[in-house]
# Entry
Amino acid sequence: MEKLGLHETLELHEILNFKSLCLSKASTMNGLVQDTELKNILLQDMSSGREHIKKLQEILVNQGEGRQ
# Structure
């Protein structure tokens, strides 16, 4: 994988922060929702959000190791 530029790394951090906020909100709303279909949508969103966060963190960690 090629090294990312500084601006790309900063953008990844912004996306990671946004995804973390979305996951937090979906998790909070999941406890308040009564509708089964909406609850399932939130659970799917939480699952994909966790996966996206994991991938973004892996990219950032790998970039950090490459710069040392």
User: Anything to note?
Assistant: Helices lie at 6-32, 36-66.
